[in-house]
Every structure is written in structure tokens, then in C-alpha cells.
Amino acid sequence: KMDQLPLDKRITDLRAFARLGEEGVDLFMTDSTNADVPGFTPLEKDIGPVLERVIASSAGKVVVASFSSHVHRVQQVLDAAHANGRRVVLLGRSMVRNMKIAADLGYLSVPEGVLVDLKKSGDIPDHRIVYMSTGSQGEPMAVLSRMANREHQVEIGEGDTVILASSLIPGNENSVYRVINGLMKLGAHVVHKGNAKVHVSGHAAAGELLYCYNIVRPKNVMPIHGEYRHLVANAGLAIETGVPQNRTIIGENGTVVDLSDGVARKVGQLDITFIYVDGSSVGKVTDDDLRDRRVLAEEGFISVITVVETSLGQIVSGPEIHAKGVAEADHVFDKIKPQIADALEQAMREGVVDHHQLQQIVRRTIGRWVGTKLRRKAMIVPVVVVV
Fold first, then answer.
1. How many angstroms separate the CA atoms of 21 and 238, rounded?
2. What are the pLDDT digits (tens) for 316-340?
3. In this structure, are 165 and 57 located in the same domain?
4. What is the pTM of this model?
5. Dihedral (CA of 213, 216, 220, 225) sign
6. CATH of the domain at 355
């Protein structure tokens, strides 16, 4: 966004935008997250007084969760804590690292004596301390989630206040609400965007985007960063300011765009898939592997082992059935064993001798029975040994 009264006094250089526009911009790629929000995004400075009031009214310790890259939000917390005579502890490796870099570069102004290391904060009374942490999106390994699960050395209890100084990213709702519920069960008062103005967006709204398009006057526009509906809304803003519709590119992951002679065109689409990291393995886990894991977790596992002599069309041993995660006693499967044996013997009498085909017969037979009788879709692994 283009904050007109930024905390660090570094105002967006609109004259530079205008100069670039005069020189000619072939392609303008703009953030789309708030393209469907009318007007202008509120100022960051509006948050400071609210944070200060919330911290002042808290009887116990205060925990503020935000993005570890949000330097202005950390600045506001430092200032609010200092105004209330509290020390601040930065929690989370990324938070500590980023704020050290910001301070070294002059982007973060730290009041003298406010910051204290976690290891040295044990003797500070709860009403004199603020913890600045990561985990505002409910990330399971982040500091705030570990606090909610009683897995962090900072313990949350009655009289403590937790401030979620961020917006919910779509898709994270369940994780965030799980953390909020966990904190409230521990006795904390949880303050968030829904009940106090403790966050404003950092993304440009429609008014700011229109302003940019009118200043830059690009030949081509490609909205980025947002869901498809946001990209469409952003493209609509560009068209309103005079960008031709055939010069607005709405792309998705994998879209190939060619920019030649001042004209942008979609020229292809690559098949983009996830690359999964599984322990020390990178890129070797497939969607099928993950689907199998979900079945194992939700439906259970059943193996059926049978030894047959195809030349005689007889079963030598089995079928033996072993189930895990199905929550049924082993004797339940006694009812299906004769049906499996009959199906195998019938197939062998009809000339089926390939063990792969025999295994599929076992899979279908027990699969139908498990689905009908147990109402489950367990992973079934049949093993037929031919002797």
C-alpha cells in the first residue's frame, strides 16, 4: 500500500512512478490482494494507540503475534511497551533475525533498555513484560501454537493477554481458531482484528491501484498476488483507467507469458505440481503417496495372505487376514474367509493362474465385504503365493 503517513517517514516516491511512466512501462505487475476493496487502505499509525491501550489494560503478561517481517508492527509494539514501562522479548528465530537486520539497517528504532533476551527475562514480573512472537497464522511449529499447547517455556494463564496483530490468510482459519481456543482455555484474553483495531492491511486497495495505473500508464498489465477473483478485480481496475482489455494478462501458476515489442501475450501453460519435502527426500513423494497415507490414517489397513497351488486349483494355507486401524476384532473377518477361498478356487478352476489376477480377485471380494459390512474403505493389500 501507499501509506501517506508511514511510521518511518519514508513516503512512497510517486514522482519516480511518474518518471517511469513518462519513459514508458511495457509491463506493470501489481498486488491484487485488496483489489476488490474500495477506497484506500487505512494507515499503520492508527494501530499504535489501540495497542497501547490494550497493553495498558492487561494485568498480566502480553503476547503479540505478527509476521516476523512486519517491521512497522514490531516498532509499534516496542513503542507501546515502552510507554507502559514494559520490556520486550522477541520470540522465534525468524523474528529475532529479521528485527536485528532491521535495527542494523536503521528501519527499526529500539528504545534504550526495552529489548531483553528470553534467557534474562525470568525475573521480570508478568505485568512488566511483552512477548513479540511468530505464529499469527496458527502455524503448528510457531511460538504461539506451542504456547497454546503448553509446549513453550513461556506459560499462558489467567490475566494474560494475547494480541493477534494480523489478518487471517484464507485457508488458515481452522488453525488460527484452534490456537485461539487453546489460549482461551488457558485463561488468556485474546484480542484480534475481529474485536479490536489491532491490524490494518499492508496491501493496496482499489483507490491506490487506480492511482498507480493513472500515474504509470502501462502498455500491459499483469495482476499478481491474490486469488483468481482478486486478479480479475485488479484487471478490471486497469481497464477502467484505459489499459486495453487485450493488454491485461490474467495468469495462473504455470502460465507462460511472452513480452515482445511492447505487447504481452499468453503463449502456453506448464503443468505445475507441488514438490513435497518428506524427511530427507525432496520431490520423490507423489500425490498418490499422500492419498495412500490419508487412507491409512482414516480408514485403516487390511492384508490378506493366501498360499495356493494352481495346478491342483487348491488353497494350501490361508487366507490369513491382518487388520490395523480398522477397530474391529480379528474374529470379525472369519465370516469373509470362506468367501475369499471360494472365489479363488472358482477362478483357478476357470484357468486363472496368474498371481496378480488372483490378488485382484481377493481385493474385490474382501473390499466389497468391508464396504458393505464395516462401512469402510480401508487400504487392502492382498498377497497370493503360488506354489
1. 14
2. 888 888 888 776 666 788 888 888 8
3. yes
4. 0.70
5. negative
6. 3.10.20.580
